[in-house]
Amino acid sequence: MTVKQLALPELVDACRELGVPGVGLWREPVQAYGVEAAAKLVRDAGLAVTTLCRGGFLTAIDAGERAAALADNRRAVDEAATLGTDTLVLVSGGLPAGSKDLRGARERIADALAELGPYAEEHGVKLAIEPLHPMFASDRCVVSTLAQALDIAERFPAHQVGVTVDTYHIWWDDTAPVQIARAGAQGRIHTFQLADWITPLPEGVLNGRGQIGDGAVDMREWKRYVEAAGYTGAIEVELFNDAVWARDGREVLAETAARFVEHAG
Amino acid sequence: MTVKQLALPELVDACRELGVPGVGLWREPVQAYGVEAAAKLVRDAGLAVTTLCRGGFLTAIDAGERAAALADNRRAVDEAATLGTDTLVLVSGGLPAGSKDLRGARERIADALAELGPYAEEHGVKLAIEPLHPMFASDRCVVSTLAQALDIAERFPAHQVGVTVDTYHIWWDDTAPVQIARAGAQGRIHTFQLADWITPLPEGVLNGRGQIGDGAVDMREWKRYVEAAGYTGAIEVELFNDAVWARDGREVLAETAARFVEHAG
């Protein structure tokens, strides 16, 4: 998503040229390219697919919407398996229209995972609940902290359900380091993502993430926390930023790789 | 601030007409009107000044900036005392330019309160640390949760330093009810403010608070929490919203009073 301006073949080429060993993919461009074709493209390039983003949106009350969400998440698991990644990131969903019941919405996520966890396991895929910054609590993700994510994940085996640790969403939270240790002790850190916090936030606040090094987040500090918790997996950089997307994609990818080495290497 | 389009005499008239018994004031319009004159205006109308907003911005590293902030906060205490309110709300301040050290910034707030707390006490004023929503953590307030605010406040006597409970900033936090109980048990709930959470957030995210009843927050639930914690003080409605400010101020005040009765009465 950091370089969504690149078509998949360009992305794969650019990763190979830069020595980037793996890439997290999003469903929409993969579906547009064809899931099997994308899997072959990435596999032939020797590139690992670190995660697939994203499943989730599991908070609907309406039975039909809920069934549709579950079906879509099973498709996302299938796509992850086809792509050869073992991790599907979940953005859990916001409050249904008119609802003020955060607790109920969080319970419906747990109910859905009771169905999706075993399905994912059968396909060799782990689900990674991503707490999103509290500014997304009403309209995108009612899971706002690692503690909340782990409270849900702990109801399931770790190889079915864990969490995503993303610096952008948790950097402000002084309890997050303890929660990272908790997640690590249970084997539930399923992926680790970097983005920096910059202001002012844009209207709608979705596409204002900063290139690493540009903002308030100490990347090395968070990397130390996840490493101390036993995480040895890939580190992804996930920027949603209109200004970044308007630039040349290969240049952004090269800059991102350089910033990674500088701030998190 | 909810009706900042009203000059102070209009505000006082409108409150009297509507039977609103108290008003939280902001420093800028009070200073513009004259502090003594504002105090007389409100006192003559029989209107209570519930709080003065705001002191704070105590995170500077630079010695000169820090001394200026302390001096300004002492002036804010003086103004509160002149206005006859016992509560000064503190917005603690963001990260200094280039800093990524949230912990250090929070410690500098505590250091400043060690100087300001006794000064406030001498003037009959309590300081109320306001945790602001985590989306303000870098540029406005490094204190993002009630737990963080209480961790600082607890170092001082409750009649010197307590907290502000504002639904807009904490509604997403499932640990906030326990923290409200903690604050109440210590006599540290110094004020309680209402605003609703609506999306999409505007650019800069400051002026997007919703009229109560328009958003995701269950006002009665939060009112129950603070009342169960022993709070018997005023309840303020504090909206920052460009659309609200563009409307007729008396109409907004009447609407706000009606919404208060409907959603929090």
UniProtKB/TrEMBL annotation, chains A, B:
It holds the Pfam family AP_endonuc_2. Keywords: Isomerase. Residues 12-255 form the Xylose isomerase-like TIM barrel domain. GO terms for molecular function: isomerase activity. This is Sugar phosphate isomerase. The lineage of its organism: Bacteria, Bacillati, Actinomycetota, Actinomycetes, Kitasatosporales.
